[in-house]
What we know:
By secondary structure, this protein is α/β, with parallel strands linked by helices. It folds into two domains: 5-165, Rossmann fold (3-Layer(aba) Sandwich); 212-317. It contains 15 helices and five strands. Helix 5 links the parallel strand 3 (112-117) and strand 4. Pfam families: DNA_pol3_delta2. One of its GO terms (cellular component) is DNA polymerase III complex. One of its GO terms (molecular function) is DNA-directed DNA polymerase activity. InterPro entries: DNA_Rep/Repair_Clamp_Loader, P-loop_NTPase. It comes from Novosphingobium hassiacum.
Amino acid sequence: xxxxxxxxxxxxxxxxxxxxxxxxxxxxxxxxxxxxxxxxxxxxxxxxxxxxxxxxxxxxxxxxxxxxxxxxxxxxxxxxxxxxxxxxxxxxxxxxxxxxxxxxxxxxxxxxxxxxxxxxxxxxxxxxxxxxxxxxxxxxxxxxxxxxxxxxxxxxxxxxxxxxxxxxxxxxxxxxxxxxxxxxxxxxxxxxxxxxxxxxxxxxxxxxxxxxxxxxxxxxxxxxxxxxxxxxxxxxxxxxxxxxxxxxxxxxxxxxxxxxxxxxxxxxxxxxxxxxxxxxxxxxxxxxxxxxxxxxxxxxxxxxxxxxxxxxxxxxxx
Length: 318
C-alpha cells in the first residue's frame, strides 16, 4: 500500500461526503497495488461502528470477481493453496450469479461492495450484464472495478463510474517494497528488477520471483547490438528455460517492453523511432501471447528480434 496517499485521500473524502458514488474505476498500470487498495477500501466502506467484521474472505457483504481456474486440475491446485492458471476472462455467468446474490439487502450493515478484478478481463456479455447493474445499482451496493488499461472499457461503463487514478511509484518506493517483500535479493537482481519496474512494485516483484535478471542483461545488450550472428537471441532461449509457464512468458515480454521504455528516456530523435517501433511490436506480442501457445524458443527469438531491430545500425553508430 506504499505510495497511494492521494488515492486514499480521494476515497475517504468521498466516504465522508455522505453521497458516495456507487461505481468506481481504479485505473493504472498493472502491479501498482490497485487490487489490494480495492480490498482495503471495500472493507472500510462496509464496516459499521460497533458491528464485528469477519475476515475479508468470509464477509457476507464483500464480493470479489476474478477469472476462474482454467480447468478441473487448476481448481484442485487452487483448493490446495497452490499457484494455478486462470481462464482469460470473467464470464457473463459470474456476473449474473453476483446479480442474483444482490437481490437481497446487505447482511451486516447498510453497504456491500463488489470488486471486479479486473475490468479488462470481462467477456462482452459480462460487460453488458455489469452495465445494467451500474445503471440500476442494487440498494446499498458499490462497485470497484480494477482496470489496467482504461481505454479497454466501454465509454458507457466509464461514464457511470468515478475514476480513481493510480500513478507509478518512485524508484525509492519500489525499492522499499522489494526490500520488504524479498530482503534476500542480491544487489544485481534488485537493480535489474528496478530497471524494468517502471514504477510498478508488482512488476518488480514478479521479475525478481521469476529470476529474470539474466534475461534483462541480454535485453540491454540487444538494444546496443544488431546481433548479426544471432548469438544473443540464442542466449535468450536458454535464459528463460525449456518450459516456461504463461506467467513467466508474460513477465519476459513485460521486462523487454520496460527495457525499451527505459531506453526511450535516454534516446536521441534518431534512435527514438526504432525504439517506438520495437515497443509497438512488444505490445502486440503481449496481446496475442495469452491466446497462442508459443514455443518458448520461438517467443524469445521474436522478442530478441524486436530488440535487435531497435539497435543502432553501423552507419547510425558512426
